[in-house]
Structure formats: structure tokens, C-alpha cells
Specification:
22 helices, mainly alpha, 0% strand
């Protein structure tokens, strides 16, 4: 255990050194950073000094013109060992973490290492500070906000925990973890006021039965999370013993995904692909792609929720749109690489065609949809997209051929057939063949009056005739 202390409690010589470093912070920032870091290594419990160091590190980055965003590179390729090393040497882990942060103050894994090691050492305020710093780097990340809320609760900062719970609910209104966090914090407030912990019948002193059950359920959730952490530790030990066994890497990635830590889930798959047996494993490559897409989807969802709560904030809207663009660019680059390496995998051809189509690259998507028809699983969808692409290029006669194939070949009036017939009608409409167009629209209307705007087209037709 390490006691958390203030600067005033340090050795007088260290205090003098810090005073000199404070005075030089504006004129010689490198000197001040060196003094702060050196003394912190000797006195890891000085939270006040750690905060001063962190503030100066970020100030130094801002002065260099990079800013925090400039340091948030791609998903990490070096996995965080989730306390496996911290348990053996938590004080050493603090030093290593500070070294990582010194190189890059926005290194989230470094701050997570500090939180884990500080927790083992009983430095609860330091745990809180570590997660507060992460929040500055990733203010909308739900997992980190939940970690912060739990750190506040563990440190006895119940009001802060409730505020954080509210913050999470603004981003994700139905988040059960946030609701449970606020309930636990509320119960903690009541317990502190009424000294419920001294009661023989704790359950009877809760406000009602529902609140008691909610608390029990939360305890179960915490147990589940702890169970995952233990599984992660055990599996990491297996990786150390059998570094060539890909099964352990896959298992670690799966545990991290279930834990809600996609960055580490991706990192462990990346580590597996570095092993000799994993370098040619297509399933690992596909798993990394799926996880990264999920990572992007989460980011898009978070920005979207923020945009809904503050629709006039242009910065939030731009971030949301940028996240969508980044996902599409990632998907395109990955699919192009896959198609180049596996030209006869027509499933990848179809996916790339869809990506190009959605980016309005109608010319280049054509060949991929043509080839994708060789894959029975995606054949009908490829024909539908091929017809759409022809239609968007105003090649209506070619588009009609594709839509007619689907109209005749699909026996059940499902959404795909309705889509094909509707698009067929639109082609006739664009060619000025209104009678043929309305006949197609009638087919869709008879099957599903709510499909797209087919009801408006039918109503307009009969209104004109009337």
C-alpha cells in the first residue's frame, strides 16, 4: 500500500526542487518536466505532483501544435496486459506507465496501467485521476466513463458517480450499466447517512423490494465483470507459456470483446497474426476486420447520440460525419486488399461492390457485381445492385434486364423482389414510359402499400386520371 500525499509532505529538498521547476515552467519546460518526473518516481503517492506533471505534459503537446487529437493514432498494436504485470510489481508498473505517458500523454493504455496499479496499491484518488485524464482524451467513450464512475464510487465520491452516470445516459439513454451505477451510488449515499451497514437486516432498510433486487443484480454484474478479468489473466498466462498457440490469442480477444474493450480485442488478434502460424490465417484477418468495423460503429453511434442531444453543435455533427467517412474508407481499403489477394472470392467482390455503390462510384462497382453473381449466396443481391448501378448511370435498358430477372426468378414477394419491381417502374418512368411504370408500381402497391413512396405514385396517377 502507498499513502497518497501532497507536495507539502515531501522531503523539503524535493519541495525546493519543485519550486525551482515551477518557476522555470514557462521558460524551460523540458527542465520542469524532468524534475517533476524524477521526483514522482521517488514519491509515487504524490497525487498533487502527478497532476502538475500531467498538466505540463499536455501543455507541452499543445505548444508543439499537435494537440491531443494529433496523438490519437490508429488502434493500438501493443496489447495492455490488464494487470498481469501490475499484480507482480504495481510500483514498477506505475514507473513504466509514466514512461509511456511521457512519450505520448494521450496514451490511454498508459493511464489504464496507472489506474490498475494504483488500485492494487490502494491509491483510490490516483485511480480516479487516471480515468479523469482518459475522459479528457476520449470524452464520449462509454467504457471509460463507466470505469470513471466506478472509480468515483470506490473512492467515496458518490455525487461524482451519479453525475458520471447521468453523463453516460445522455450518450446512451438505455444503458443498464449507467442506471446500475447511479443506483449503487444512491444506495451508498443513503447508507452513509443512515449507517445502514450496521443494521442486521440490510435488505429491510432499503426503500423497497425493487431497489434491493436491483442492488443484488448489480452485485451479480460486478461478479461477471470480475470473472472476465480473471479469465483474461489466466489466458494471458497461457499465452506466455504457449506463445505459438493461436487459440489463446483468439480467446483473449473474445474476452476483451465481451468486456467491452474493443481496442484490446483488436490488439490481441493483431498479435495472433504476427505469429508464424497466424500470418496466413484468413479467419484472423476477417476477425480483425469485423472487430474494427464494430469499433467504428460504436464511435459513429456515440457521436450520433451526442448529435441528437445537441443538434446545433456543428463540431459534433462534423465529428459524426467524419467517423462515418473513416469507416467507409477503412472498409474500402480492406476490401480492395482482400479482392487483390483473393480475386476468386466473390463474396469479397460483392462487399467491395456495395461499398463502391454506397460511395456513388457506380462505374467501378459494375465489374464486382457482375463477378459476384458466381457466388450463389449473394447472386440475387448482386443482380439487384447491378441493376441499381446501371440505373444510376442512366443505362435504363441494361437496368431493366437485371430487375426483370429478379422479378421473374424470385417466387416470394419479399423486400428484394418488391425493390426490384419498384426500381423497374422507376426505370420505365425515367424513360417516359408512364403506362409501363404504373403497372409495375401497382404490383408493389398490391403487395405492400407502405413500400417506399409507391402509395404516393399510385395516388398521383389516379388523381391525374380523375
Amino acid at each position: 500500500m502507498i499513502q497518497e500525499i501532497s507536495i507539502a509532505q515531501l522531503d523539503p529538498r524535493q519541495v525546493k526542487q519543485l519550486q525551482a521547476a515551477d518557476a522555470a515552467a514557462n521558460s524551460n519546460i523540458s527542465y520542469s518536466l524532468e524534475i517533476y518526473s524524477s521526483i514522482l518516481k521517488q514519491s509515487q503517492g504524490c497525487l498533487e505532483l502527478r497532476k502538475k506533471l500531467r498538466a505540463l505534459q499536455f501543455k507541452n503537446i499543445q505548444a508543439s501544435g499537435k494537440g491531443i487529437n494529433g496523438l490519437l493514432g490508429k488502434v493500438t498494436s501493443v496489447p495492455f496486459m490488464f494487470g498481469a504485470k501490475a499484480e507482480k510489481d504495481p510500483e514498477g508498473s506505475l514507473v513504466k506507465a509514466e514512461t509511456l505517458i511521457d512519450k505520448n500523454p494521450a496514451n490511454v493504455l498508459g493511464h489504464e496501467m496507472i489506474a490498475e496499479a494504483a488500485n492494487l496499491l490502494g491509491m483510490k484518488e490516483t485511480v480516479v485521476f487516471a480515468y479523469e485524464t482518459i475522459r479528457k482524451i476520449h470524452p464520449k467513450n462509454l467504457k471509460f466513463l463507466k470505469d470513471l464512475g466506478n472509480a468515483y464510487l470506490d473512492a467515496g465520491k458518490t455525487e461524482k458517480a451519479i453525475e458520471t452516470g447521468n453523463e453516460i445516459l445522455k450518450l446512451s439513454p438505455t444503458d443498464g450499466d449507467a442506471v446500475d451505477l447511479m443506483k449503487r451510488a444512491s444506495v451508498a449515499v443513503a447508507m452513509n447517512k443512515g449507517k445502514w451497514e450496521e443494521s442486521e437486516d440490510f435488505r429491510a432498510q432499503l426503500k423497497d423490494e425493487d431497489e434491493a433486487q436491483a442492488l443484488e443484480q448489480q452485485a451479480k454484474s460486478v461478479t461477471d465483470a470480475k470473472g472476465l478479468e480473471e479469465l483474461i489473466r489466466q489466458t494471458y498466462e497461457k499465452v506466455e507459456k504457449e506463445p505459438a498457440n493461436l487459440t489463446n490469442y483468439r480467446q483473449l480477444s473474445d474476452y476483451y470483446q465481451r468486456y467491452g474493450d474493443l481496442e484490446n480485442a483488436i490488439a490481441w488478434i493483431q498479435e495472433a497474426r504476427k505469429q508464424e502460424a497466424g500470418q496466413g490465417d484468413v479467419s484472423l484477418e476477417e476477425k480483425e476486420r469485423e472487430l474494427t468495423i464494430e469499433y467504428f460503429d460504436n464511435s459513429i453511434s456515440q457521436w450520433h447520440q451526442t448529435h441528437l442531444t445537441d443538434p446545433t453543435n456543428l463540431e459534433v455533427k462534423n465529428s459524426w460525419e467524419q467517423a462515418i467517412t473513416q469507416k467507409k474508407l477503412y472498409e474500402k481499403s480492406q476490401l480492395e486488399s482482400l479482392v487483390q489477394r483473393y480475386p476468386n472470392d466473390y463474396g469479397y467482390r460483392y462487399e467491395l461492390g456495395v461499398n463502391l455503390y454506397e460511395n456513388e462510384d457506380y462505374e467501378n462497382c459494375l465489374s464486382h457485381f457482375q463477378l459476384a453473381q458466381r457466388n450463389a449466396k449473394v447472386r440475387l443481391d448482386a443482380i439487384l445492385y447491378l441493376g441499381r448501378a446501371y440505373s444510376r448511370k442512366n443505362f435504363y435498358d441494361l437496368a431493366i434486364e437485371q430487375f426483370s430477372i429478379l422479378k421473374n426468378e424470385i417466387q416470394v414477394m419479399d423486400d428484394r423482389k418488391k425493390d426490384a419491381i419498384y426500381e423497374l417502374g422507376c426505370c420505365f418512368e425515367s424513360m417516359g414510359k408512364k403506362d409501363k411504370a404504373i403497372e409495375e408500381f401497382k404490383v408493389v402497391y398490391s403487395a405492400d402499400i407502405s413500400f417506399r413512396d409507391v402509395a404516393d405514385k399510385i395516388n398521383a396517377f389516379y388523381s391525374q386520371n380523375a
